[in-house]
Amino acid sequence: MEKPKTAKTAKTPRARGKHRRLWGSLLAVAVLLAGAGGWVVYQNEYDLTEERVTVTGGKQPLQGVLARPTGGHGPYGLVVFVHGDGPVDATHDTFYRPLWEAMAKAGYATLSWDKPGVHDAPGNWLDQSLQDRADETLAAIRWAKAQPGIDPDRIGLWGASQAGWVMPKAARQSPDVKFVIAVGPAVNWLRQGRYNLLAELRERHASPEETAAAVARSDRNLAALRSAGTFEQYRAAGGDIEGLTPERWAFNKRNHLADATEDLAALRVPVQLVLGGRDLNVDSDDTEAGYRRLVTTPGLLRVLRFPDATHNLVPKDVEDSELRSTFLAVAAPRSLFAPGYLDGMRNFLTSLDHRKG
């Protein structure tokens, strides 16, 4: 016997309308997601032509990125990037690209490289002195001068933080350095370290007792750096080694007496000093006073201050919010920086060419 067929239930007009609304909502969400994805892709595309390069001529080859403007045919001026502290790669985890693009709009190429030991690059950045870093920078300039499309008479330096002790050395030692852009630099290493310690303690509202204990630990650390003792001896004597490795200890011991005073006083090229008013790493007022005292040739020093920006030239409220900073870094990286910073970089470079002309 044939099995009876199951009757189909007809959909009511109300049910059909609910179904259409559901599909419409899903379609709208899909369109929004696709649009957001397209926006993120667009925001992370830069008007640059990047080339992976090997920079030779120094103590060891450097793995770098040479980024050129997409428009025009050159020859382009060149900004050589000098990193701050830490294991920084050529793009600084893509953080540099908005800067490169801003500089490209002024007709300048940019050159940056992985620090020694980063991404399997030869060497170890912790083995370097600040003079080693200056020598490395000058070797990169000599290499760049021979590259096609680069104007050898328009090469300068951009650098942040620790680069403030490297760039004045390089500029003092070589006439190839035509300008310096110093972002959040300090003049004296020890003075900067004490400022940073106290600023971070104030930021987290440390008690007077906690502050006194932290200063005492810092003083013991500095005394050990000045002595002939080793890291192992310092550790055996009960020294504070939190966050320290033997390699980092050796780096600090090699460089902790750094002071840019003499090198800054010898500068005879345009200097763009960029400072954040909410910088916990560097005393921006002390730095500005030092640069104004030392760079005395009329017209060479220009100061660009961003009152609400941090050491990274990011607005304080953005840097303090992991959610906001992560969102902007992914979805709108140019907006991560303090308003006016990228334009300031482009305007400075453009003004150099006008001055030369």
Structure description:
With 357 residues, the protein is α/β, with parallel strands linked by helices. It folds into two domains: 48-188 and 259-356, Rossmann fold (3-Layer(aba) Sandwich); 192-255, no CATH class. The chain is built from 13 helices and eight strands. The chain has an eight-stranded mixed sheet, with helices on both faces. Helix 10 (284-294) links the parallel strand 7 (271-276) and strand 8. Helix 3 crosses helix 4 and helix 5 (189-203) packs antiparallel against helix 6. It starts with 12 loop residues before the first helix and ends with a helix.
Question: What's the layout of helices and strands?
Answer:
Blueprint: H1 13-43, E1 48-55, E2 62-69, E3 76-82, H2 97-105, E4 108-113, H3 130-145, E5 150-160, H4 163-173, E6 180-183, H5 189-203, H6 208-226, H7 231-236, H8 246-255, H9 261-265, E7 271-276, H10 284-294, E8 301-306, H11 316-319, H12 322-331, H13 341-356
Helix pairs in contact: 2-13, 3-4, 5-6
